[in-house]
Design goal:
Layout: H1 3-14, E1 41-43, E2 47-56, E3 59-64, E4 70-74, E5 78-84, E6 90-98, E7 106-108, E8 114-118, E9 123-129, E10 134-143, E11 155-157, E12 164-169, E13 188-193, E14 202-203, E15 209-213, E16 220-223, E17 229-233, E18 240-243, E19 246-249, E20 257-263, E21 271-272, E22 279-280, E23 296-297, H2 307-313, E24 319-321, E25 327-332, E26 338-343, E27 356-364, E28 370-372, E29 383-388, E30 396-397, E31 400-401, E32 407-412, E33 419-423, E34 429-436
Parallel strand pairs: 10-14, 15-21
Antiparallel strand pairs: 1-29, 2-34, 3-4, 4-5, 5-6, 7-8, 8-9, 9-10, 11-12, 12-13, 13-15, 16-17, 17-20, 18-19, 20-24, 22-23, 25-26, 26-27, 27-28, 27-29, 30-31, 32-33, 33-34
Length: 438
């Protein structure tokens, strides 16, 4: 195979465009007109942070077009597009799409020519021109997604086969028992073939193929260089556990939030991850039967369905995180040596937790696959990079935040400035650049 063909294949797997190379930009120390950091923060000594944009509305997702322009999904405001000057600061901002109920999902095909955006119920596509930063030809791709407690809908183009699109819907309650049936179209990720969209769009519940289900709220998922997707899952709240006839409150440190190996959507179908019957342990001290961090448990074990049943049937998480951290987004660095995850922060734990960006070291195994360095039962498999100064004092209820940022989007800058991270605090939507000193 010719070198040019090999590069094209590799670029497709990584979601890159071989026809465009984004010019590098300097990391600015500050940008004129951008308000100061709204909240107090702590930054890891190996990193720097600066605020690149403010006065936005609830930043949820950040992506890049093939010209290096930044597209931002602002909850209910729409999709904005931002260009940069030679100093690395934003020099123009325009609303690409206003309103329309668009609230979270946003992605581009690897060639940069088709844009996807979602509301709570509907996935749309547009033809996109990165040179003019204009859209045209809006189409409904998927419709009829369930409404409920979790309104975010993440969309991801499969980089190695961009006619396939992944679309996620969370549960409609804390314990959505009906979601154990895939036909509900909840707590799952489905695959849709864009080459075969019917007139008026697919029906989410009855069409498409099931990639994975039993995923309570898998808001963030991203491919590694092999095309295997890794997802972060928000688990349940206010849990008690009935064991040996006694009911105990376990909600402060259980169940764990999850990092799931979801597999390759070009081949995997109908994988089950446990919800709404199986949950993962974070703090084993809440249990009396020797369960380890990362293993599954049921809320009320009995003779016919117990912890062992779950651990034999449901796919276990590859790694887990402190309960109630609320992971929202994840992304790999260029060589997939690390994954970076934003923790939105808790609303029902005392003391509160989350409100930070963490780094999860990965390694490439002998068979060429990628995997976290830490074992599955580790509680120290990640490092804080950027966080609220005193997370225990943060207060949150939904998007309402009185004294801390709520971290959401995470996306590496193709111009080399660092990791762009968003906050959807209702007081002010912000975007920061986290940059490693080395």
């Amino acid at each position: 195979m010719r070198l040019s063909n090999l590069l094209a294949v590799a670029a497709a797997l990584l979601g890159a465009d071989v026809h465009a190379e984004v010019a590098k930009l300097p990391l600015p120390k500050s940008c004129s007109g951008v308000p100061n950091m709204r909240y107090q923060y702590t930054i890891n000594s190996a990193w720097t942070v600066m605020k690149i944009a403010g006065s936005l509305k609830q930043v949820r997702t950040i992506i890049w077009d093939t010209e290096g322009n930044m597209l931002v999904q602002q909850n209910t405001r729409g999709i904005s597009v931002h260009t940069f000057g030679a100093d690395g600061c934003i020099n123009s901002t325009n609303m690409l799409i206003s309103g329309g109920g668009l609230n979270h999902g946003l992605d581009l095909t690897p060639d940069g020519k088709t844009l996807y955006g979602s509301s709570e119920t509907t996935l749309y596509s547009w033809a996109y021109d990165p040179l003019t930063r204009q859209i045209s030809n809006q189409k409904t791709v998927v419709k009829g997604m369930s409404t409920g407690v979790h309104s975010s809908r993440t969309v991801k183009v499969v980089p190695g086969q961009p006619n396939l699109v992944l679309l996620q819907v969370g549960s409609n309650s804390n314990l959505d028992m009906a979601a154990q049936q895939p036909s509900t179209g909840r707590a799952c990720i489905k695959v849709f073939d864009i080459d075969k969209v019917p007139s008026g769009g697919y029906s989410y519940n009855t069409q498409g193929e099931m990639f994975g289900y039993g995923l309570r709220n898998e808001i963030g998922f991203v491919p590694d260089p092999n095309g295997v997707f890794w997802g972060v899952e928000n688990s349940g709240d206010d849990f008690t556990r009935t064991e040996n006839g006694q009911r105990r409150d376990i909600h402060t440190n259980n169940p764990a939030e999850k990092l799931n190996n979801l597999g390759d959507p070009r081949t995997v179908r109908n994988a089950w991850y446990g919800y709404p019957t199986c949950f993962s342990v974070w703090d084993p001290s809440s249990f009396t039967n020797g369960l380890k961090t990362g293993q599954h448990f049921v809320i009320a074990p009995n003779s016919s369905y117990n912890d062992a049943t779950c651990n034999g049937k449901a796919i276990a998480p590859r790694l887990t995180f402190q309960a109630h951290s609320a992971p929202i987004w994840n992304t790999f660095d260029d060589e997939a040596k690390n994954m970076y995850i934003t923790f939105h922060g808790s609303w029902n734990r005392q003391p509160p937790t989350g409100f930070k960006v963490v780094q999860v070291p990965f390694t490439r195994l002998a068979d060429g696959s990628y995997d976290p360095v830490a074992p599955a039962d580790s509680r120290t498999g990640y490092t804080d990079i950027f966080s609220a100064t005193n997370p225990g004092s943060c207060t949150a209820n939904g998007l309402t935040m009185s004294n801390c940022f709520r971290l959401t989007a995470a996306s590496w800058d193709p111009a080399g400035r660092g990791l762009f991270v968003g906050s959807d605090s209702s007081a002010e939507g912000e975007i920061y650049i986290l940059s490693p000193k080395s």
